[in-house]
Amino acid sequence: MKLGKTGNNKFLKQFNETSLLELIRTNKQVSKADLAQLSGLSPTASGSIVSNLLEKGYIREAGIGISKGGRRPNLYELNPKSYYSIGVDIDVDFIRFILMDITGNVEYRDKISSGFDQSVPESIGAVVEKVRQIVRLNNISEDRLLGVGISVPGMVENKTHEIIFAPNLGWEQVNLEHMMSGVGDFPIYVDNEAMCSAICENWLGCCTEQKDFVCINMKSGIGSSIFAGGNLYRGCSGSAGEIGHIMVDHNGPKCACGNYGCLETLVSSKSMVEKARRLVRQGLITDFSETLDINSINSIDDIVGAIKSGNEAARVIFVEAAGYLGLALANLINTINPSRIVLGKELVKFSEDILEHLRNIALAKALRYPASRVEILLSELGEDTSALGAAIIPLKKLFGYRL
Protein backbone atom coordinates (compact mmCIF):
# COMPACT_ATOMS: atom_id res chain seq x y z
CA MET A 1 0.00 0.00 0.00
CA LYS A 2 1.36 3.40 -0.99
CA LEU A 3 1.42 5.96 1.79
CA GLY A 4 -0.08 9.34 1.10
CA LYS A 5 1.32 12.61 2.33
CA THR A 6 -0.52 12.31 5.64
CA GLY A 7 0.84 8.82 6.18
CA ASN A 8 4.37 9.95 5.36
CA ASN A 9 4.11 12.92 7.71
CA LYS A 10 2.80 10.74 10.53
CA PHE A 11 5.60 8.22 10.04
CA LEU A 12 8.25 10.95 9.87
CA LYS A 13 6.95 12.61 13.03
CA GLN A 14 7.05 9.31 14.91
CA PHE A 15 10.50 8.51 13.55
CA ASN A 16 11.90 11.91 14.63
CA GLU A 17 10.30 11.61 18.05
CA THR A 18 11.79 8.16 18.56
CA SER A 19 15.21 9.35 17.36
CA LEU A 20 15.29 12.26 19.81
CA LEU A 21 14.10 10.05 22.64
CA GLU A 22 16.98 7.66 21.94
CA LEU A 23 19.46 10.57 21.84
CA ILE A 24 18.20 11.71 25.23
CA ARG A 25 18.62 8.15 26.56
CA THR A 26 22.17 7.73 25.30
CA ASN A 27 23.36 11.24 26.22
CA LYS A 28 21.77 11.17 29.71
CA GLN A 29 21.24 14.96 29.88
CA VAL A 30 21.10 17.10 26.76
CA SER A 31 19.84 20.51 25.55
CA LYS A 32 17.46 21.30 22.68
CA ALA A 33 20.32 22.84 20.72
CA ASP A 34 22.48 19.75 21.13
CA LEU A 35 19.57 17.54 20.12
CA ALA A 36 19.09 19.60 16.95
CA GLN A 37 22.78 19.30 16.14
CA LEU A 38 22.95 15.56 16.88
CA SER A 39 19.78 14.73 14.96
CA GLY A 40 20.19 17.09 12.03
CA LEU A 41 16.74 18.57 12.68
CA SER A 42 16.10 22.29 12.76
CA PRO A 43 16.05 23.95 16.21
CA THR A 44 12.33 24.65 15.73
CA ALA A 45 11.51 21.01 14.91
CA SER A 46 13.71 19.73 17.72
CA GLY A 47 12.10 22.11 20.22
CA SER A 48 8.62 21.06 19.14
CA ILE A 49 9.42 17.38 19.64
CA VAL A 50 10.97 18.03 23.06
CA SER A 51 7.80 19.87 24.10
CA ASN A 52 5.71 16.92 22.93
CA LEU A 53 7.89 14.44 24.86
CA LEU A 54 7.57 16.62 27.98
CA GLU A 55 3.81 16.70 27.61
CA LYS A 56 3.62 12.91 27.29
CA GLY A 57 5.83 12.51 30.35
CA TYR A 58 8.67 10.61 28.69
CA ILE A 59 11.25 13.23 29.67
CA ARG A 60 11.73 15.96 32.28
CA GLU A 61 13.89 19.02 32.83
CA ALA A 62 17.20 18.09 34.43
CA GLY A 63 18.69 21.46 35.31
CA ILE A 64 20.74 24.10 33.53
CA GLY A 65 23.68 23.37 31.24
CA ILE A 66 26.88 25.25 30.51
CA SER A 67 26.64 28.32 28.29
CA LYS A 68 28.24 28.14 24.84
CA GLY A 69 28.07 31.85 24.24
CA GLY A 70 24.51 32.76 25.13
CA ARG A 71 21.92 31.98 27.76
CA ARG A 72 22.55 28.79 29.70
CA PRO A 73 20.34 26.06 28.19
CA ASN A 74 17.82 23.82 29.89
CA LEU A 75 18.84 20.16 29.96
CA TYR A 76 16.49 17.23 29.49
CA GLU A 77 16.63 13.61 30.60
CA LEU A 78 14.38 10.53 30.67
CA ASN A 79 11.69 10.78 33.32
CA PRO A 80 12.14 7.93 35.84
CA LYS A 81 9.02 6.01 36.89
CA SER A 82 6.98 7.52 34.08
CA TYR A 83 6.60 4.48 31.84
CA TYR A 84 7.26 0.83 32.61
CA SER A 85 7.77 -2.60 31.11
CA ILE A 86 7.47 -6.07 32.62
CA GLY A 87 9.77 -8.99 31.87
CA VAL A 88 8.80 -12.62 32.47
CA ASP A 89 11.16 -15.60 32.28
CA ILE A 90 9.37 -18.98 32.18
CA ASP A 91 11.47 -22.02 33.10
CA VAL A 92 10.85 -25.48 34.47
CA ASP A 93 11.25 -24.60 38.14
CA PHE A 94 10.49 -20.88 38.44
CA ILE A 95 8.81 -18.05 36.58
CA ARG A 96 10.75 -14.83 37.20
CA PHE A 97 9.28 -11.33 36.97
CA ILE A 98 10.96 -7.95 36.54
CA LEU A 99 9.35 -4.50 36.56
CA MET A 100 11.58 -1.94 34.85
CA ASP A 101 11.06 1.77 34.31
CA ILE A 102 11.88 3.73 31.16
CA THR A 103 15.44 4.42 32.39
CA GLY A 104 16.21 0.69 32.80
CA ASN A 105 15.98 0.82 36.58
CA VAL A 106 14.49 -2.30 38.18
CA GLU A 107 11.55 -1.31 40.37
CA TYR A 108 10.37 -4.78 41.37
CA ARG A 109 11.50 -8.42 41.05
CA ASP A 110 9.96 -11.67 42.17
CA LYS A 111 9.67 -15.32 41.22
CA ILE A 112 7.03 -18.01 41.65
CA SER A 113 7.34 -21.78 41.53
CA SER A 114 6.34 -23.60 38.38
CA GLY A 115 5.90 -27.36 38.04
CA PHE A 116 8.09 -29.23 35.54
CA ASP A 117 4.96 -30.59 33.87
CA GLN A 118 3.04 -27.32 34.02
CA SER A 119 0.63 -26.99 31.07
CA VAL A 120 0.40 -23.95 28.81
CA PRO A 121 -2.93 -22.76 30.32
CA GLU A 122 -1.55 -23.16 33.85
CA SER A 123 1.56 -21.15 32.98
CA ILE A 124 -0.47 -18.44 31.25
CA GLY A 125 -2.83 -18.23 34.22
CA ALA A 126 0.08 -17.84 36.64
CA VAL A 127 1.74 -15.17 34.47
CA VAL A 128 -1.46 -13.19 33.96
CA GLU A 129 -2.29 -13.23 37.66
CA LYS A 130 1.23 -12.08 38.60
CA VAL A 131 1.35 -9.35 35.93
CA ARG A 132 -1.94 -7.93 37.18
CA GLN A 133 -0.61 -8.07 40.74
CA ILE A 134 2.57 -6.19 39.76
CA VAL A 135 0.52 -3.50 38.00
CA ARG A 136 -1.77 -3.17 41.01
CA LEU A 137 0.97 -3.15 43.67
CA ASN A 138 2.97 -0.49 41.83
CA ASN A 139 -0.04 1.69 40.93
CA ILE A 140 0.69 1.58 37.19
CA SER A 141 -2.01 2.70 34.77
CA GLU A 142 -2.21 0.57 31.62
CA ASP A 143 -1.41 3.50 29.34
CA ARG A 144 1.96 3.76 31.13
CA LEU A 145 2.83 0.08 30.62
CA LEU A 146 4.83 -0.20 27.40
CA GLY A 147 4.39 -3.96 27.19
CA VAL A 148 5.20 -7.36 28.66
CA GLY A 149 8.16 -9.35 27.34
CA ILE A 150 8.15 -13.12 27.89
CA SER A 151 11.24 -15.32 27.74
CA VAL A 152 10.88 -19.05 27.06
CA PRO A 153 13.50 -21.84 26.80
CA GLY A 154 12.68 -22.92 23.27
CA MET A 155 12.61 -22.08 19.57
CA VAL A 156 10.55 -18.99 18.70
CA GLU A 157 9.62 -18.36 15.07
CA ASN A 158 10.89 -15.04 13.67
CA LYS A 159 7.75 -13.70 12.04
CA THR A 160 4.85 -15.18 14.00
CA HIS A 161 6.69 -15.30 17.37
CA GLU A 162 5.09 -18.70 17.89
CA ILE A 163 6.89 -21.09 20.23
CA ILE A 164 7.80 -23.90 17.83
CA PHE A 165 9.33 -26.25 20.37
CA ALA A 166 10.26 -25.89 24.04
CA PRO A 167 11.30 -29.47 24.90
CA ASN A 168 12.05 -28.93 28.58
CA LEU A 169 8.64 -27.35 29.10
CA GLY A 170 6.92 -29.95 26.93
CA TRP A 171 5.44 -27.19 24.74
CA GLU A 172 5.03 -27.33 20.98
CA GLN A 173 3.31 -24.96 18.52
CA VAL A 174 2.21 -22.45 21.18
CA ASN A 175 1.21 -18.91 20.17
CA LEU A 176 1.72 -17.29 23.56
CA GLU A 177 1.35 -13.73 22.23
CA HIS A 178 -2.10 -14.50 20.87
CA MET A 179 -3.19 -16.45 23.94
CA MET A 180 -2.23 -13.54 26.22
CA SER A 181 -3.54 -10.75 24.01
CA GLY A 182 -6.56 -10.19 26.27
CA VAL A 183 -4.60 -9.61 29.46
CA GLY A 184 -4.54 -5.82 28.98
CA ASP A 185 -4.33 -2.91 26.57
CA PHE A 186 -0.58 -3.30 25.99
CA PRO A 187 1.53 -5.45 23.65
CA ILE A 188 2.92 -8.91 24.48
CA TYR A 189 6.34 -9.92 23.13
CA VAL A 190 7.69 -13.50 23.20
CA ASP A 191 11.33 -14.43 22.61
CA ASN A 192 13.84 -17.17 23.30
CA GLU A 193 15.48 -17.02 26.74
CA ALA A 194 19.04 -16.89 25.41
CA MET A 195 18.07 -14.11 22.99
CA CYS A 196 16.64 -12.19 25.95
CA SER A 197 19.91 -12.63 27.84
CA ALA A 198 21.86 -11.21 24.90
CA ILE A 199 19.49 -8.24 24.74
CA CYS A 200 20.12 -7.69 28.46
CA GLU A 201 23.91 -7.90 28.21
CA ASN A 202 23.92 -5.51 25.24
CA TRP A 203 21.56 -2.98 26.89
CA LEU A 204 22.91 -2.85 30.44
CA GLY A 205 25.41 -5.69 30.97
CA CYS A 206 29.00 -6.39 29.96
CA CYS A 207 28.48 -6.10 26.18
CA THR A 208 27.17 -2.54 25.76
CA GLU A 209 30.21 -1.75 23.60
CA GLN A 210 30.44 -5.12 21.85
CA LYS A 211 29.11 -5.75 18.34
CA ASP A 212 30.01 -9.45 18.02
CA PHE A 213 29.40 -11.62 21.05
CA VAL A 214 27.70 -14.82 22.18
CA CYS A 215 25.66 -15.44 25.33
CA ILE A 216 25.34 -18.97 26.68
CA ASN A 217 22.88 -19.93 29.40
CA MET A 218 22.64 -23.09 31.47
CA LYS A 219 19.45 -23.99 33.29
CA SER A 220 17.03 -26.75 32.31
CA GLY A 221 19.00 -26.90 29.07
CA ILE A 222 21.80 -25.09 27.25
CA GLY A 223 20.94 -22.15 25.03
CA SER A 224 22.97 -19.54 23.21
CA SER A 225 22.37 -16.33 21.30
CA ILE A 226 24.50 -14.46 18.81
CA PHE A 227 25.07 -10.73 18.33
CA ALA A 228 26.66 -10.07 14.94
CA GLY A 229 27.50 -6.60 13.65
CA GLY A 230 25.60 -5.01 16.52
CA ASN A 231 22.34 -6.92 15.96
CA LEU A 232 20.84 -10.20 17.12
CA TYR A 233 21.39 -12.93 14.58
CA ARG A 234 18.29 -15.13 14.55
CA GLY A 235 18.71 -17.18 11.37
CA CYS A 236 15.99 -17.71 8.77
CA SER A 237 13.41 -19.04 11.24
CA GLY A 238 14.64 -17.87 14.63
CA SER A 239 16.51 -20.92 15.91
CA ALA A 240 20.09 -19.64 15.50
CA GLY A 241 22.21 -20.46 18.53
CA GLU A 242 20.60 -23.77 19.54
CA ILE A 243 23.94 -25.26 20.60
CA GLY A 244 22.22 -27.31 23.30
CA HIS A 245 21.13 -29.71 20.57
CA ILE A 246 24.52 -30.19 18.96
CA MET A 247 25.29 -33.90 19.20
CA VAL A 248 28.52 -34.40 21.15
CA ASP A 249 28.24 -38.10 22.07
CA HIS A 250 26.54 -40.61 19.73
CA ASN A 251 26.18 -43.01 22.64
CA GLY A 252 24.99 -40.37 25.05
CA PRO A 253 21.66 -40.06 26.91
CA LYS A 254 18.40 -39.46 25.10
CA CYS A 255 17.48 -35.80 24.84
CA ALA A 256 14.02 -34.28 25.16
CA CYS A 257 14.29 -33.31 21.48
CA GLY A 258 14.39 -37.00 20.54
CA ASN A 259 18.07 -37.31 19.63
CA TYR A 260 20.86 -38.86 21.69
CA GLY A 261 23.97 -37.24 23.14
CA CYS A 262 22.96 -33.59 22.72
CA LEU A 263 25.18 -31.13 24.56
CA GLU A 264 22.47 -30.30 27.09
CA THR A 265 22.14 -33.98 28.08
CA LEU A 266 25.69 -33.67 29.41
CA VAL A 267 25.87 -29.99 30.33
CA SER A 268 22.77 -28.64 32.07
CA SER A 269 21.63 -28.29 35.64
CA LYS A 270 19.13 -31.09 35.15
CA SER A 271 21.66 -33.47 33.60
CA MET A 272 24.24 -32.85 36.33
CA VAL A 273 21.68 -33.45 39.09
CA GLU A 274 20.58 -36.67 37.38
CA LYS A 275 24.20 -37.77 37.05
CA ALA A 276 24.90 -37.12 40.72
CA ARG A 277 21.88 -39.18 41.73
CA ARG A 278 22.75 -41.99 39.33
CA LEU A 279 26.34 -42.32 40.48
CA VAL A 280 25.34 -42.37 44.14
CA ARG A 281 22.63 -44.95 43.42
CA GLN A 282 25.13 -47.16 41.56
CA GLY A 283 27.66 -46.85 44.35
CA LEU A 284 30.29 -45.58 41.93
CA ILE A 285 31.02 -42.53 44.07
CA THR A 286 30.20 -43.68 47.56
CA ASP A 287 31.91 -40.69 49.18
CA PHE A 288 29.26 -38.40 47.64
CA SER A 289 26.59 -39.74 49.98
CA GLU A 290 28.68 -38.74 52.97
CA THR A 291 27.97 -35.13 52.02
CA LEU A 292 24.53 -35.50 50.44
CA ASP A 293 21.73 -37.99 50.74
CA ILE A 294 20.49 -39.01 47.28
CA ASN A 295 16.98 -37.76 48.02
CA SER A 296 18.30 -34.30 48.84
CA ILE A 297 20.10 -33.80 45.49
CA ASN A 298 17.51 -31.59 43.82
CA SER A 299 19.43 -28.72 42.26
CA ILE A 300 22.84 -27.65 41.09
CA ASP A 301 23.17 -25.74 44.36
CA ASP A 302 23.31 -29.09 46.18
CA ILE A 303 26.28 -30.12 44.03
CA VAL A 304 27.93 -26.72 44.55
CA GLY A 305 27.50 -27.18 48.31
CA ALA A 306 29.14 -30.60 48.13
CA ILE A 307 32.07 -29.16 46.17
CA LYS A 308 32.55 -26.42 48.77
CA SER A 309 32.59 -29.14 51.42
CA GLY A 310 35.52 -30.74 49.62
CA ASN A 311 33.66 -33.55 47.84
CA GLU A 312 35.86 -34.52 44.88
CA ALA A 313 33.21 -36.68 43.23
CA ALA A 314 30.88 -33.69 43.01
CA ARG A 315 33.69 -31.59 41.57
CA VAL A 316 34.33 -34.18 38.83
CA ILE A 317 30.74 -33.75 37.62
CA PHE A 318 31.41 -30.05 37.07
CA VAL A 319 34.82 -30.70 35.49
CA GLU A 320 33.36 -33.12 32.94
CA ALA A 321 30.52 -30.73 32.09
CA ALA A 322 33.00 -27.87 31.67
CA GLY A 323 35.04 -30.06 29.33
CA TYR A 324 32.10 -30.73 27.01
CA LEU A 325 31.10 -27.07 27.08
CA GLY A 326 34.67 -26.02 26.34
CA LEU A 327 34.61 -28.10 23.15
CA ALA A 328 31.35 -26.44 22.11
CA LEU A 329 32.85 -23.00 22.76
CA ALA A 330 35.83 -23.87 20.57
CA ASN A 331 33.45 -24.55 17.70
CA LEU A 332 31.66 -21.25 18.34
CA ILE A 333 34.96 -19.37 18.37
CA ASN A 334 35.90 -20.90 15.02
CA THR A 335 32.54 -20.38 13.31
CA ILE A 336 31.18 -17.17 14.86
CA ASN A 337 34.45 -15.37 15.74
CA PRO A 338 33.01 -13.40 18.71
CA SER A 339 34.93 -10.85 20.77
CA ARG A 340 33.23 -12.12 23.94
CA ILE A 341 31.43 -15.23 25.15
CA VAL A 342 29.29 -14.50 28.20
CA LEU A 343 28.26 -17.40 30.44
CA GLY A 344 24.98 -16.80 32.25
CA LYS A 345 22.27 -18.16 34.52
CA GLU A 346 23.57 -21.18 36.47
CA LEU A 347 26.93 -21.15 34.70
CA VAL A 348 27.82 -18.25 37.01
CA LYS A 349 27.99 -20.88 39.78
CA PHE A 350 31.12 -22.40 38.22
CA SER A 351 34.06 -21.75 40.51
CA GLU A 352 37.11 -19.97 39.12
CA ASP A 353 39.12 -23.19 38.73
CA ILE A 354 36.27 -24.88 36.81
CA LEU A 355 35.89 -21.78 34.65
CA GLU A 356 39.62 -21.77 33.96
CA HIS A 357 39.43 -25.44 32.94
CA LEU A 358 36.62 -24.55 30.52
CA ARG A 359 38.62 -21.62 29.09
CA ASN A 360 41.74 -23.74 28.64
CA ILE A 361 39.88 -26.40 26.66
CA ALA A 362 38.00 -23.86 24.52
CA LEU A 363 41.12 -21.87 23.64
CA ALA A 364 43.29 -24.95 23.08
CA LYS A 365 40.80 -26.55 20.69
CA ALA A 366 39.89 -23.38 18.79
CA LEU A 367 41.94 -21.90 15.95
CA ARG A 368 44.78 -19.85 17.35
CA TYR A 369 43.96 -16.44 15.89
CA PRO A 370 40.22 -16.20 16.71
CA ALA A 371 41.01 -17.73 20.12
CA SER A 372 43.48 -14.90 20.77
CA ARG A 373 40.74 -12.31 20.19
CA VAL A 374 38.01 -13.69 22.45
CA GLU A 375 37.19 -13.22 26.14
CA ILE A 376 35.22 -15.88 28.03
CA LEU A 377 33.62 -14.40 31.14
CA LEU A 378 30.74 -14.82 33.55
CA SER A 379 27.70 -12.56 33.43
CA GLU A 380 27.55 -10.08 36.28
CA LEU A 381 23.74 -10.12 36.26
CA GLY A 382 23.21 -13.66 37.52
CA GLU A 383 20.05 -15.67 36.94
CA ASP A 384 17.82 -12.70 36.07
CA THR A 385 19.35 -11.95 32.67
CA SER A 386 16.50 -13.44 30.62
CA ALA A 387 13.81 -11.71 32.70
CA LEU A 388 15.74 -8.44 32.42
CA GLY A 389 16.13 -8.88 28.67
CA ALA A 390 12.43 -9.62 28.30
CA ALA A 391 11.64 -6.37 30.14
CA ILE A 392 14.01 -4.48 27.83
CA ILE A 393 12.17 -5.63 24.67
CA PRO A 394 9.29 -3.08 25.04
CA LEU A 395 11.89 -0.39 25.80
CA LYS A 396 13.83 -1.22 22.63
CA LYS A 397 10.58 -0.85 20.70
CA LEU A 398 10.00 2.57 22.26
CA PHE A 399 13.50 3.77 21.41
CA GLY A 400 13.24 2.63 17.80
CA TYR A 401 15.33 -0.52 17.80
CA ARG A 402 14.67 -3.53 15.63
CA LEU A 403 13.49 -6.49 17.68
From TrEMBL:
<comment type="function">
    <text>Transcriptional repressor of xylose-utilizing enzymes.</text>
</comment>
<dbReference type="GO" id="GO:0042732">
    <property type="term" value="P:D-xylose metabolic process"/>
</dbReference>
<dbReference type="Pfam" id="PF00480">
    <property type="entry name" value="ROK"/>
</dbReference>
<protein>
    <submittedName>
        <fullName>N-acetylglucosamine repressor</fullName>
    </submittedName>
</protein>
<keyword id="KW-0859">Xylose metabolism</keyword>
<dbReference type="InterPro" id="IPR036390">
    <property type="entry name" value="WH_DNA-bd_sf"/>
</dbReference>
<dbReference type="InterPro" id="IPR000600">
    <property type="entry name" value="ROK"/>
</dbReference>
<dbReference type="InterPro" id="IPR043129">
    <property type="entry name" value="ATPase_NBD"/>
</dbReference>
<dbReference type="Pfam" id="PF13412">
    <property type="entry name" value="HTH_24"/>
</dbReference>
<comment type="similarity">
    <text>Belongs to the ROK (NagC/XylR) family.</text>
</comment>
<keyword id="KW-0119">Carbohydrate metabolism</keyword>
<dbReference type="InterPro" id="IPR036388">
    <property type="entry name" value="WH-like_DNA-bd_sf"/>
</dbReference>
